[in-house]
Write a structure and sequence with these properties.
Its EC number is 2.1.1.-. One of its GO terms (biological process) is methylation. It is an enzyme of class 2 (transferase). The chain is an alpha/beta fold. The protein has one domain: 3-Layer(aba) Sandwich (Rossmann fold), CATH 3.40.50. It contains 9 helices and 9 strands. It has a 7-stranded mixed beta sheet, with helices on both faces. Helix 6 links the parallel strand 4 and strand 5. It starts with a helix and ends with a strand.
Length: about 240
């Protein structure tokens, strides 16, 4: 487990859980859930599940769900919610990018989801390798991210640092006044081609690419930023 990665999310667990509730109404998360269907009675793995917001919605849709995250503090919130209202979810505290993953040795999953988690993971190649190994042949991987081409706007940080370039990849911490979470935990910027080529290299074929528009409540304070693509949602299918 990456100490830096665990620490930066453990430190914001309460802020994260209170800011992103179970009321899923943002277009990117809704699109991810729609592309994951059908999931009833299927085995679903939710990567970088955090406090279990999307994990619980997957379970409510009658999937058999396992959530995995590197942050013990966020998983504590998720497990408490499961104790209060059991949905049959299994939570695993693990670093997805570690070489030894005994929890992946069970039967393969039908669907793997990752909602706004890939940019939080430092080793993308290892994460997608684990994703591909977790899926059965013909299974689907659905992910949502801040659009790699999003340049930001007034008080809103883009996908790469102000004054930097789209092609310069790496981890950085946002400073935009309205980018509250990424000011605290940072993010990894990668080009669109890096994401898609990594998926392809691990046998995940792009099936659907969507760019949902942000809601009016978001754009009201960010008119200049909303002129650009903000979110990206992709569904891939495992070959074989």
């Amino acid at each position: 487990m990456s100490p830096r990665q665990a620490a930066r999310y453990d430190a914001v667990a309460d802020f994260y859980a209170s800011g992103w509730t179970d009321a899923i109404d943002d277009p990117a998360s809704l699109r991810l859930l729609s592309l994951a269907e059908p999931i009833a009675c299927r085995r679903v793995l939710d990567l970088a599940c955090g406090h279990g917001r999307v994990t619980r919605e997957l379970a409510r849709r009658r999937a058999t769900v396992t959530g995995v995250d590197v942050s013990a503090a966020l998983l504590a919130v998720a497990r408490e919610a499961e104790r209060e209202s059991a949905l049959g979810i299994t939570y695993v505290h693990a670093d997805l990018t570690a070489p030894d993953q005994p929890w992946l040795s069970t039967s393969p999953y039908d669907v793997v989801t990752c909602n706004f988690g890939l940019s939080d993971i430092d080793d993308l190649d290892a994460a997608i390798d684990a994703t591909a190994r977790a899926l059965r042949p013909g299974g689907t991987f659905v992910c949502s991210i801040l659009h790699p081409c999003f340049p930001g706007g007034h008080h809103v940080s883009g996908s790469w640092p102000e004054g930097g370039r789209y092609h310069d990849e790496g981890w950085w911490r946002a400073d935009g006044e309205l980018s509250s979470l990424r000011r605290q935990v940072g993010a990894n910027h990668r080009t669109l081609s890096t994401y898609l080529n990594t998926f392809r290299r691990h046998g995940l074929r792009l099936d659907v690419l969507a760019e949902p528009e942000p809601p009016e409540t978001w754009t009201a304070e960010r008119r200049d930023a909303a002129r650009h693509p903000v979110f990206l949602v992709a569904r891939c299918v495992k070959g074989g």
